[in-house]
Amino acid sequence: MAIDPHDAVQVKPFVPASKILPEITVKGIILGIFLAILLAASNAYVGLKIARTISGSIPAALISMMVLRRFRNSNILENNMVQTIASAGEVVAAGVIFTIPALILMGHWESFDYFQTASITIIGGILGVMFSVPLRQNMIVKDNLPYPEGLVTAEILKAGEDTKGATKVLLAGSFVAAFISFLQTAFKIAGEQVSYWTKVGSSAFGASLVLSPILMSAGYIVGIRALIAFLVGGLLTWGVAIPLFVHLYGLPEAPDLASSLLSIQQSHFKYVGVGVMAIGGLWGVISLMKPIIIAVKSSFAAMKTKEGEFGVKVRTDRDIPFKFVMLGIAIASIFIFILFLTLVSQANLGISMPLFWSIVLFASIFSLVVSFVCAAIACYMVGIVGTTSMPISGVTIASIIAFASILLLFLGGSIDFQVNTEAALKTSALVIIFAAIVAVALSVGGDNMQDLKAGQILGATPWKQQLMLLVGTVASALVIPLILQTTFEAYGIGDVLPRAGMNPSHALAAPQATLMATITKGFFSGNLPWHMIQLGVGLGVLAIIVDEILKRKANGFRFPVLLFALGIYLQFGYVTAFCVGGLISFIVEKKQHDAPRTDTDTGLLFASGVIAGEAILGMLLTIPYAYFQSTDIFALNFDWLKPFETLIGVILFVGLAVLMYQQGIRRKA
Fold first, then answer.
1. Could you tell me if 457 and 148 are in contact, meaning their C-beta atoms sit under 8 angstroms apart?
2. Tens of pLDDT along 499-523?
3. CA separation (Å) from 465 to 12, 272, 459, 547, 548?
């Protein structure tokens, strides 16, 4: 069905369509690419460490204004174009870090393959932009979906000079976090964790708290209402399940009690988290069936719309021409086929030639179809709940389960995966690369719509924004393999350390990538502890029921199943650090008499700055750490300070909590 332009909601742009301002400039492109790379690097670190990324549009808009206002001829549309380019870095990082590290964790790669990582990212990015282009008329113009980050970004840019205070809050948070993190991770004179574990009779109990600014700030942003599920998951694992396991089966051998308990969690109960997350991802897709149908119908309606159907378009209503959209999809399709063809061979799998070619062709077509559907879902969902709340990992896990099940159905009769371990590994890698393309496509597609919403309000030219998002995506894709490899060499990822003698406690957890590696490899090797996963599925169903009940009460409290899964999956110290931030947020809300928070509240800006500060410092430190192959090169070995390291860490953590509370009750920058 064609879109009738008379049905469109008219939004009066800040810059009229008749007024022509320079949008794409050399200085804007340079600044945008620099910020895209910076956001890609910082979000790669953040996502691998805490399983969340931060929205890039708002910080990018603030920094862009701070820099470009020093030039005489800068304007609001140029600022908007900078944040459009820059925001690509964050979403590219999100799509990549949740999937690609799984190839390291499952043993397919020993290091990040530059060409394949960059190719996967560019292919997914092109598909994300191209699939979202036809949706702008339906979702932004006709339906006028809110797209919250797009609205806030536009308002910040319109505010202009009034955002100096907001920029100062962001920078203050960044410097405070960088200072604390440097004392902890570089100088090593402040403790990073406080914990107490003890044996009680035939069992063992305790608690821990990771003294991380980034975790506290992430908890502040998420809020305590959602984090209740996170805390319940942690308490259920560390306060009930593990002590009961110790009582029944005793403690495994390990250097200390904490290591023994962590070993139990890693070898048994993390699979319960896998089960919860798997059913959570499936439920996410099921619960979105109506929006999915709407999004897919809108996509096909837009695809059928001819270029000239709306008559002569004004500047603010011109997209990338449809013929170029189809050309971009066609080029991406060819490279997907080549990518899959080079990944596996007939000899690897030991199957007949017709079956081999059928699998490669099916994988290529299925990647396109699923990327299209997931990008459409993302474009619709971020219009309602925002980019930060988009369940990227849940949708990706659902697509992994679907693809792996189909491959197992087709190949299970020809390959004994439990015997042919090489075939199992290659097939698992095929699934992960498929998932990476899907994850990047849906991330970039959703981000494109947020940027286009900001552009609609400001009066930007859509095709120029779409083109610049491609520029930001490609720029980020070209550096993300280097970022991942440097990070891996500096810290290690999950339980994989690139060299002997590294401190496993410094390794980045990469929860989503670990989860995807576990599910995918287990599908084909047959060594998944299904009884624990089934227990997780049961708990996940219970969590979904609780969440649905809370949703109907409309009191603001929810029980998100994916956060519940992460509470089970992560170490308890991470859970408590998140909840400290959520508790501060709750106290601030009560102090403000439950006034609604906005993305320009000083507490949220300060927390975002803290996350950015620790993330940027963490990424900068990867360079000397990787070069010298040690995380101790800046360590100050003061013997007299050793007994006080934990106390110093606690004091800094409490001080940051006080600062965050003070910023929160200010409310506005």
1. no
2. 887 878 778 888 888 888 888 888 8
3. 18, 43, 11, 38, 38
